[in-house]
Amino acid sequence: xxxxxxxxxxxxxxxxxxxxxxxxxxxxxxxxxxxxxxxxxxxxxxxxxxxxxxxxxxxxxxxxxxxxxxxxxxxxxxxxxxxxxxxxxxxxxxxxxxxxxxxxxxxxxxxxxxxxxxxxxxxxxxxxxxxxxxxxxxxxxxxxx
Length: 145
Description:
Helix content is about 25%, strand content about 30%. By secondary structure, the chain is an alpha+beta fold.
């Protein structure tokens, strides 16, 4: 019977791939609302946590970005299924057909009720705005005029 011999280099290669397959990040610090939409989105794209091409652009110019496969984003303990942002005159973002929400706005869309998300955001001392999207889907927004 033949023995399967796995070289140490092959094992090292396989182990190096694991961090790519399961990347996790907390957005809590960024949702303290003290950075620009450009920095928020550009940092997540540079870390390869989101697809840099928006999956949707709302009429108010808010661009929605999807987490990449294998990325696990969370905000205040809630699972993030999209990050959003817009910064006026910034090529990172596509403008919508209507009036922009703000010159700079960003945030996360999470699975969680409005009340629970609001409680977690307030407990963290964030100035973020909590907005109802759908049952158990809530947006956490930071915006600058």
